[in-house]
Amino acid sequence: MIKVEFLGPIDKMPIEMEASTLADVSAKLKEDSTLIQWLDKCAVALNDTMVNDLNTSLKDGDRVSILPPVCGG
Amino acid sequence: MIKVEFLGPIDKMPIEMEASTLADVSAKLKEDSTLIQWLDKCAVALNDTMVNDLNTSLKDGDRVSILPPVCGG
Amino acid sequence: MELYDGPLDIKEIFCRWLDEEAHSNYGAYIPFVGTIRAEDDIEALSFDIYEPVLREWFDTWQEKAKALGASVKMAHSQGDVPIHTSSYISAVFSPKRRVALELIDAFVEDFKANAPIWKYDVKNGERIYAADRSTPMYGSGLLA
Amino acid sequence: MELYDGPLDIKEIFCRWLDEEAHSNYGAYIPFVGTIRAEDDIEALSFDIYEPVLREWFDTWQEKAKALGASVKMAHSQGDVPIHTSSYISAVFSPKRRVALELIDAFVEDFKANAPIWKYDVKNGERIYAADRSTPMYGSGLLA
Using one digit for the tens of pLDDT, what is the confidence trace for D91-138? Predict the structure, then answer.
């Protein structure tokens, strides 16, 4: 099991799922219609490190964070 | 009569001279061998406004300042 | 890197950073202070921060700065920050002017684009995500 | 524009400028602080300033800044400034980040090239003109 959490303005509780790569996570999240508006604008961190490859493999206990568009300052 | 003053590191007292344009000032200053090393690096102000034209005409009481290379900060 | 609840005490931070580097032999110190402007009838802006990723982002910049003989610092607010108070200060220290001027520009611009901080307008006590002023982080769209 | 004999009280100046513009609705405040580095065995740097031309130079920049909706400030030392103390602070205030970052760069670079200030190394109490680090002002060579 891995955990997916949604940061900042995305109003959604963390979810747990079975996934062996980020591509699996993508496929599962795309089933949720409330997330469609967010996914193309969001970046992804794996255990708090930014990642940029759908083939990134996941292991039990991993934490995937979904980061929507930012505006610090 | 106009007055020519030398700023910053140029170790020279002000001098007075007759001159109707900056070209006249240039001609007179070039007679001073101690100034040769400075003139090609120096900018010029007329009554505290920077000038950039040798034909600038001068009138009695004008003050010409010779400004050597700068390094503020 | 320093995070605070509510507005920053800019004077305290500026002066402390100055003291911290007083004998580091840097020739240039350039802070950037960000203050909340009164516009669109907002009472305040409000910020969410994801600290672990922000720390990674900052550490990467600290290494880039070190490679140039320079150093960076930053402080940011979490929660509500009223108009005319400050939510952000970052700074570059460098031996040389040119490096400092280029680094503060690159550092502040990348901060705006990639620091995991979310901004909300506060109007009538309500918190409204500033979607139109926000930028997708580097690598966005991976899961789309 | 402020001139002082000896080192600047950077904290006082930074904080006073912050207060002065606290309600001007600027979003960005970028100071540039210049500090004397220990190098080449100097004890201090020393500065001559020709104030009337400096004031003209500064006023021209204040107009340029105003045209961008921004504002500039500066303070500089005259006479001796010991190592690890500061001789220079300038600052930009602007509604917008991009304008502020570009303006502080242009303002500081033009200051280095065209502000009528002469720098001397102080070694063993002697004042030596920093000829090799100095730049001929715009229009130099007119009389050569």
Answer: 999 999 999 999 999 999 999 999 999 999 999 999 999 999 999 999
Q: Using DSSP, state whether D102 is helix, strand or coil.
A: helix
Joined together, the tokens standing for residue C3 give: 């995070």
Write out the H or E segment, with its range, that includes residue D5. strand D2-5
- ipTM of this predicted complex? 0.95
User: Is there a contact between D139 and B51 if contact means CB atoms under 8 Å apart?
Assistant: yes
DSSP, collapsed to helix, strand or coil, labels residue C128 as: strand
Asked if B30 contacts B41 with a C-beta cutoff of 8 angstroms, the reply is no
User: Is C141 within the bounds of a domain?
Assistant: no
Instruction: Determine, yes or no, domain membership for D100.
Output: yes
| Residues on chain B touching D91 (C-beta within 8 angstroms) | none
Q: Does A39 touch chain C (CB under 8 A)?
A: yes
Give residue-wise pLDDT tens across range B8-28.
999 999 999 999 999 999 999
**CATH code for the domain of C28:** 3.90.1170.40
Q: Which domains does chain B have, with CATH numbers?
A: 2-67 (3.10.20.30)
Q: Which of residues 47-66 of A touch C (CB under 8 A)?
A: 48-54, 65-66
Domain total of chain C: 1
- Assign 3-class secondary structure to chain B: CEEEEECCCCCCCCEEECCCEHHHHHHHHCCCHHHHHHHCCCEEEECCEEECCCCCECCCCCEEEEECCECCC
> Burial letters for B14-46: b for 16+ Cβ neighbours within 10 Å, e otherwise?
eeeeebeebbbbbebbeeeeebeebbebbbbbb
Q: Which two tokens stand for residue A19?
A: 């996934």
Helix (H, G, I), strand (E, B) or coil at C65: helix
Q: How far apart are CA C125 and CA C133, in angstroms?
A: 20
| CB within 8 Å of D126: residues ≥ 6 apart | none
Tell me whether residues D36 and C27 touch, CB distance under 8 A.
Answer: yes
C108 closest CA partner among A1, A72, D49, A21: A72
Cβ of B71 within 8 Å of Cβ of D50? The answer is: no
- Model pLDDT for residues D7-21, shown as the tens digit of each residue: 999 999 999 999 999
Contacts B–D by Cβ distance under 8 A: 118
Domain of residue C58: give its range: 2-130
Domain contains D138: no
Q: How far apart are alpha carbons A49 and B33 in whole angstroms?
A: 69
